[in-house]
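User: Here's a structure from my thesis project, written as structure tokens. My advisor, Dr. K., wants to see whether a designed sequence matches the one we expressed. Can you design one independently, without my sequence as a hint?
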């Protein structure tokens, strides 16, 4: 199967349940931001600037778990900021899994190996010594880390352990040269690759998360898929880079650059993603083929931002993950008070100028899953894609020149 049966069945069951009940709007994925502190300052990310006055604040653990229970989404994406900075990230993952959620840890990868070493320090048994020697030989851990792992953990709190309901979702915006330029720090791509390799060796499920910008070449997108597919990554999320307000301000004020030189227009997105249906056949791309058709310009979709809500230090962010008009105390309150018909692009008509170039997955991928713009055969198309055979590893990935960074 392209995706694990249990995960696909859980999400499909959630949709069917609400369709039978006639629920007009419901959550599919919760974007949970327990903090906005980050150890990178990525070009194109406006989160740090948008919440610059509250970077030291965190959402308490009990409120994080209550938000997941309140909206009832079967999947929770822990994002931020960098979620591995969150002091109770292990307990948060444990609590969400205990609720029966599918959990994605959306990380830039810089701290990921540290958490994986914590898991190794927690495990015991004679097989561990052989594993440690192998990981050391592959330079996935250092000699000092081996000694720390052998000493074991000092505390008795939870660790992030492999689970069929858990994915590491690693931010990778291109091969080494492009990615390190976007995150504005050298060496990050190599650290991401090492962390992914280590996670796969330890039995974790791993996905990559790529945002495509104006400078990203179509060839490089394919090479990213091929390289990480060859490494054994379990799937890929991809979305076009969109010039939302906070990102546009960050680009102009902090970097002194023109946002229109970096972000994609709607026409550019369709040009970049013209071959995504072919990519979907060759690689394990998360999402629906209906959304892929939308990206390729073969159909229109209506934004369903309410299906992927965002909860952070200020409450439920509305109307969407990227645009902030208000924050609400409750998910139900947000659904009732927001005039959802004010946003998006419908039949070529731009309802809000801020939405003009938006084709991002958090607004439109749920539309493909929910059938908000249904065409005959869409449901079968989604079913066949998700429950169909998994594409084989891309053997051509071993020939990709992934480590292509030059200069400082």
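Assistant: Designed independently from the structure alone:
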């Amino acid at each position: 199967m392209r995706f694990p049966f249990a995960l696909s069945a859980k999400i499909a069951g959630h949709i069917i349940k609400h369709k039978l009940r006639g629920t007009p709007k419901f959550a599919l994925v919760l974007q949970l931001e327990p903090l906005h502190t980050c150890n990178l300052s990525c070009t194109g990310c406006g989160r740090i600037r948008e919440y610059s006055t509250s970077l030291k604040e965190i959402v308490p653990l009990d409120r994080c778990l209550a938000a997941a229970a309140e909206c009832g989404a079967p999947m929770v994406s822990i994002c931020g900021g960098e979620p591995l900075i969150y002091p109770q990230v292990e307990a948060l993952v444990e609590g969400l899994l205990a609720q029966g959620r599918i959990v994605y840890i959306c990380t830039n990868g810089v701290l990921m190996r540290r958490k994986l070493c914590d898991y190794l320090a927690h495990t015991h048994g004679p097989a561990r010594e052989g594993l440690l020697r192998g990981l050391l030989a592959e330079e996935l851990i250092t000699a000092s880390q081996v000694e720390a792992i052998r000493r074991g953990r000092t505390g008795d709190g939870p660790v992030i352990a492999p689970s069929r309901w858990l994915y590491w979702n690693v931010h990778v915006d291109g091969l080494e040269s492009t990615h390190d330029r976007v995150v504005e720090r050298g060496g990050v791509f190599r650290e991401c690759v090492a962390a992914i390799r280590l996670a796969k060796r330890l039995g974790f499920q791993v996905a990559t998360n790529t945002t495509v910008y104006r400078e990203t070449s179509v060839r490089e997108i394919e090479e990213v898929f091929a390289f990480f597919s060859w490494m054994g990554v379990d799937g890929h999320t991809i979305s076009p880079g969109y010039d939302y307000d906070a990102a546009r301000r960050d680009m102009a004020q902090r970097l002194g650059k023109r946002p229109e030189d970096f972000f994609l227009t709607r026409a550019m997105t369709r040009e970049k993603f013209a071959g995504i249906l072919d990519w979907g056949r060759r690689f394990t791309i998360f999402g629906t083929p209906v959304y892929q058709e939308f990206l390729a310009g073969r159909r229109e979709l209506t934004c369903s931002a309410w299906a992927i809500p965002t909860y952070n230090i200020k409450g439920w962010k509305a109307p969407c993950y990227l645009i902030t008009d208000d924050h609400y105390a409750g998910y139900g309150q947000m659904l009732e008070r927001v005039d959802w018909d004010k946003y998006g692009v419908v039949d070529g008509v731009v309802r809000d100028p801020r939405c003009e170039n938006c084709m991002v997955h958090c607004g439109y991928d749920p539309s493909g899953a929910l059938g908000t713009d249904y065409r005959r055969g869409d449901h079968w198309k989604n079913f066949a894609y998700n429950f169909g055979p998994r594409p084989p590893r891309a053997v051509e990935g071993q020939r990709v020149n992934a480590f292509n960074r030059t200069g400082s």
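When you compare it with your expressed construct, this may help: Residues 290 and 368 are 5 Å apart (CA to CA).
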